[in-house]
Amino acid sequence: MTEENINSKEISVSTQHAAKTQSLLKAAWIIAFVTIISKLIGFLRDVVIANFYGAGMVSDAYFYAYQIPAIAIILLGGIGGPFHSAVVSVFSKMIPDLSKKVPENVNKLFNTFLTSSFLVFLALGVLVFVFSDVIMKIIIANGSAQLIHLASLHLKIMAPVLVVGGVVGIYYGILIVYKEFLIPNISPILMSVAIIAIISLVRHDNSGIMLALATTVGALCQFVYQLPKLKSLGFKFRPNLDVFNNPQYKNILELLFPAILSSTVGQVYIYVDMFFASQLQEGAWSAIGYANRLFQFPVGVLVTAFLVPLFPIFSKLVGEKDYDNIRYYFNKGVGLLNFVAFPILVLIILLSTNAIQLIFQRGAFNEVATMMVSEALCYLSVSIIFYVFRDSITRVFYAFNDSKTPFLVALSSIVIKFILNMLFVKQLGIGGITLSTSFVTLINGFWLGLLIKKKMHMDYGIYFKNLLKMAVISVAAYFVCLGAYNLWDKYFEPTQLLLCIKIILITILCAVVYSIFAAIVKIPYVFELYGRVKGKLNRTINR
Fold first, then answer.
1. For residues 359 and 411, is the Cβ–Cβ distance under 8 A?
2. Cβ atoms within 10 A of the Cβ of 495, count?
3. Residue 123: Cβ within 10 Å count
4. In 10 A of CB 366, how many CB atoms?
5. Do 339 and 114 contact (CB within 8 A), yes or no?
6. What share of the chain is helix, strand, coil (3-state, %, to 5)?
7. Between residues 140 and 342, the one the model is more confident about
8. Predicted confidence band of residue 7 (pLDDT cuts 50, 70, 90)
9. What is the DSSP letter of 101?
10. Distance CA 185, CA 308 (A)
11. DSSP state, residue 76
12. Which of 246, 256, 470, 505 could form a disulfide with 86 if both were Cys (CB 3.0 to 4.6 A apart)?
């Protein structure tokens, strides 16, 4: 091969790299924008729930009961869940040309998976409805009889959510394969809107029954919302159970079952937390729930925005055995996620109490509830960096059709979670539960990062070099912002308006200081983001 041909090939590869990166970032920005809107509406939903129910027995009953249907609609059927991941991994390899009509074998496999999943979840929904009392007695072992009864009633009302959970996940997966990123990320908004509308109209709901009903209505809306787009893509709904001697269906199950076990093992962590929370003061589990929702706002935006478009890319690259590009996109994606995650961690530690006062503290949500949520959130926020790495490396395992390894890692951590809760809860109360979650996330990420070497060499050198730089400048940015925080409190009263101004100004200060420090230590992501923002501004001005 001549030197000219070699140079031509290198230019071609470089151009393809740039095009793929541009496409990835464009998809990430779109998903990030929609996810932010979804999370903001989810925030409004939580504010409304907190206003009407506070952090007490009724909210505890709802959040205890909701963990069961949440397994289906969020954990198993949500974006990044086993059903979504299994569909993306298998169907992305079966549909090489997205512009052509859906192949008959693809449509048949889709219907087989859809039918079998619906029947399984229907059976689970019936069992949960019938045995709701027994389930709640096991979960809330140390709760009062009144709390257990109320939680059981909530669970009966939300049992239908189980029926649609896995089916919604299949819909999500197909849409992602066809690069229809918006609908799956808009869909969760429907549940939030339903909850806000129904409980706001009812207002007086001392038992929380309408809150549980609103959750069920919202889940059903998510289910119906997907149908028109799937039909327009060419998928026809023809129920069948061609599950025997079907190699493609077998491929789905080989990926699906370990992923389900892995996800439900993660849910066991929550049940362990429920057990310990029921020993604490009334409202403890609600406080942990609110803290987790606040934490999931930035984390959900970051992880969803980048991993949703990255996962199909990982799957295709694994099929092509293009490990260099897997390393490239992994380091690029996780590096950008960490770059944004560190200042978020700083801001949560500094501003959590003020933010919770501003967002939640009204109506039934009092100052005691604010302190409980703030304590839980601060200890949970430590896990943001570990969370980003763990979820990113898990997608690489899934791309290799290996969900067994993440499952075994998660399974091995249950005992660790229980032991850490025993140690931390005695000393820290609510904060001990969320701190143990942070440690378990770190341990899981560490083992997954090591075990991926059995599949391919990841080359973490660049990752850890930039991670160390980010950690150092984050500490420096924290102390600068802490000084500004203390100065503000010295001269201004904590009114609602001034709290809002304080949060905005310190957030801007943190972003500016962190970016300056990042430029000084030459972290590459700050220059990339600056270049993109500058380019967009120039194009806007030129128009």
1. no
2. 10
3. 12
4. 15
5. no
6. 85, 0, 15
7. 342
8. very low
9. P
10. 10
11. I
12. 256
Are 59 and 47 in contact by the 8 Å Cβ rule? The answer is no
Report the candidate in 137, 258, 147, 158 with the shortest Cα–Cα distance to residue 213: 158
Which residues touch 262 (CB under 8 Å, ≥6 apart)?
82, 403, 406, 407, 410, 411
Burial of 509 (C-beta count, 10 Å sphere; 0-12/13-18/19+): middle
Angle at 75 between CA 74 and CA 76, to 5 degrees: 100
End-to-end CA distance of the chain: give it in Å, rounded.
46
Residue that wins the pLDDT comparison between 422 and 79: 422
List pLDDT tens digits, range 271-313: 888 888 888 888 888 888 888 888 887 777 777 666 666 777 7
User: Within its chain, how far is the Cα of 416 from the centroid?
Assistant: 23
Nearest to 84 by CA among 177, 161, 215: 177
Count CB-CB contacts under 10 A for residue 407: 21
Tokens of 74: 């969020």
Q: What are the angstrom distances between the C-alpha of 447 and each of 75, 147, 434, 444, 463?
A: 22, 39, 20, 5, 16
Does the pLDDT value for residue 2 go beyond 60?
A: no
Residue 248 in tokens: 């493609």
Contact indicator for 73, 164 with CB cutoff of 8 Å: yes
Q: Which among 126, 110, 117, 43 is positioned nearest to 76, based on CA atoms?
A: 117
Encoded tokens for 535: 């380019």
Hey, where are the domains in the chain?
Answer: 18-459
pLDDT tens column, 475-534: 999 999 999 999 998 888 878 888 899 999 999 999 999 999 998 988 887 777 766 666
Question: Any idea which of 195-199, 206-210, 306-310, 373-377 has the lowest mean pLDDT?
Answer: 306-310
Pick from 417, 389, 72: which is nearest to 220 by CA?
Answer: 72
pLDDT tens for residues 57-99? 888 899 889 988 887 787 676 666 777 777 877 787 777 677 7
Number of Cβ atoms within 10 Å of the Cβ of 246: 16
Burial class (CB within 10 angstroms; exposed 0-12, middle 13-18, buried 19+) of 497: exposed
Which tokens is 108 given? 């048949």
pLDDT range class, residue 537, cuts 50, 70, 90: low
| Distance separating alpha carbons of residues 488 and 482, to the nearest angstrom | 10
CA-nearest of 419, 467, 412, 484 to 443 is: 412
Distance from CA of residue 189 to its chain's centroid? 14
Rounded CA-CA distance 359/503 in Å is 12
- What's the rounded Cα separation, in Å, for the pair 133 and 64? 12
CB 428 within 8 A of CB 483: no
Which pair of tokens denotes residue 48? 């409304």
More confident of the two residues 269 and 468: 468
